[in-house]
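Human: Not sure, check this?
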Amino acid sequence: MSSGTLSTSNLPQSLQPHWRSFNRSIGQLEVCKLVLTSPNGNLIASAIAESALHIQHHQSYVSANGPGWLESRIRSEAMAVV
């Protein structure tokens, strides 16, 4: 993978147009950092993303108090880490 361009070679064909659109969008940012983590690396972020996709809410709905389940998930994950 070269700097400034993310590869679509490992993606299913159906996701490649979405990835190209995403890549163009992040290319417009002054600073961008993508970090690949394991599926267990950030369970809260994954749950938020899955929830947003499930209800097709493509803009952040977490900024205004978030969904009802979020606070308890954050507390549970924080207690498990300590």
The helical segments are 16-27, 43-54, 70-81. The chain is about 45% helix and 0% strand.
